[in-house]
Write a structure and sequence with these properties.
Blueprint lengths: L4 E6 L3 H12 L3 E7 L3 H10 L4 E3 L2 H5 L6 E4 L6 H10 L3 E5 L6 H13 L4 E4 L6 H11 L6 E10 L13 H4 L7 H11 L6 E9 L11 E8 L4 E7 L5 E9 L2 E9 L8 E8 L2 E4 L8 H18 L7 H20 L3 E2 H6 L2
Parallel strand pairs: 1-2, 1-4, 2-3, 4-5, 5-6, 7-10
Antiparallel strand pairs: 7-11, 8-9, 8-15, 9-10, 11-12, 12-13, 13-14
Helix pairs in contact: 1-9, 4-5, 5-10, 8-10
């Protein structure tokens, strides 16, 4: 057996190619197979990764004995089907967000992975960030006391259409809230860990295209917790560049983090992290830059080590289920034009 954890990659679009490079470069991972839907993508994979088997059907990967982890980087609609098939085949899974498009599908995946004693990791790579992880470390160190309020904002250029335009097809994407705001729900949950599970959501959204109101160009959601803490997640896709900030307020002060660049995958961002109260302000220094591709590389290595050592992945299936739930609860709130209780949605048939 190889001394590296062997990955089979499902999907070789723009981000799938980044996953392939991250696997290939990880010290304890090995890319052994790739599947892609189009001949053009398969040819691109063969050219960039000679020696790696390139296939046209993801089920061929599940049949292989030399694959330990299946990395699912497919359009949202296919996440549940592919992940369930991989778990049923006895494979560990790294599943890009969102883990599924419905509450029940998330529950099925969590249960299947648990019953089979397999790792199901969800691709919330921001947890590996020196910047956003630095915020979490300050919270854990008690720098601002108990967290009471989290605000995560993103202003960026419109989404790219994706392979075959799937990101602009609501039947395949599921919801634009599941595309990027899902990462910010995950961060908020992570930062508000002491507050337990959220209890209600109130969301608003609108679209620049009146013929497609389901495409949420502008979106905001308030997530409430039983202890009085709350989070605000807000995004606009009608801007320029990629500018994300997080402000976390506690009983003893505030943490303020910012990341800005022309694109989420830029290798030349401007970012900083400060915390304090009043005129007493400190700034964190970083030995390592922050950026999506750097965090993806760390995520792949963390998953490989998790499989080898039997530890927990950076974002568990239970964590991924909650970020998906909050997106779907926000969709329900928008459709109902009012707040929704999480318990009511969980009890719904």
């Amino acid at each position: 057996m190889s001394d590296r954890v062997r990955f089979g990659l499902l999907g070789f679009g723009l981000f799938g190619a980044h996953h392939a490079r991250a696997i290939q470069n990880a010290p304890h991972a090995e890319l052994v197979a790739v599947t892609a839907n189009s001949e053009a993508s398969r040819n691109a994979a063969r050219e960039e990764f000679p020696g790696v088997d390139v296939l046209d059907n993801y089920r061929q990967v599940l049949e292989r004995d030399d694959v330990d982890v299946v990395d699912v980087v497919l359009p949202n609609l296919l996440h549940y089907e592919a992940a369930m098939a991989a778990l049923s085949a006895g494979k560990h899974v790294l599943l890009e967000k969102p883990m599924a498009l419905t509450w029940s599908q998330c529950d099925d995946l969590v249960r299947t992975a648990r019953d089979a004693n397999l790792t199901l990791a969800i691709g919330h790579e921001l947890r590996l960030s020196s910047l956003w992880g630095g915020v979490k470390q300050l919270i854990m160190d008690g720098a601002i006391g108990r967290v009471q309020h989290v605000l995560v904002e993103l202003s960026r250029f419109p989404y790219r259409p994706g392979s075959g335009g799937w990101r602009y097809d609501i039947s395949r994407v599921g919801s634009w809230i599941l595309e990027e705001p899902i990462h910010f729900f995950d961060l908020a949950q992570w930062y508000l860990e002491q507050s337990g599970d959220p209890v209600s959501v109130y969301a608003r959204a609108n679209s620049r295209d009146p013929e497609h109101p389901e495409l949420r160009d502008n979106f905001s959601s308030i997530v409430n917790y039983a202890d009085g803490a709350y989070a605000v997640i807000s995004q606009t896709l009608a801007a320029f560049g990629h500018h994300q900030s997080a402000k976390i307020t506690g009983e003893k002060g505030c943490i303020w983090a910012s990341w800005s660049a022309s694109d989420a995958r830029s290798d030349r961002p401007v970012f900083w992290l400060r915390w304090g109260l009043g005129d007493q302000v400190q700034e964190m220094t970083f030995d390592k830059p922050a950026g999506e591709l750097l965090e993806l590389a760390d995520e792949i290595e963390a998953i490989a080590n998790c499989i080898t050592d039997g530890g927990q992945p950076p974002c568990t299936a239970e964590d991924g289920r909650w970020s998906t739930r909050l997106c779907l609860a926000s969709e329900a709130s928008i459709e109902r034009d009012g707040p929704v209780r999480i318990a009511d949605l969980l009890e719904a048939p």
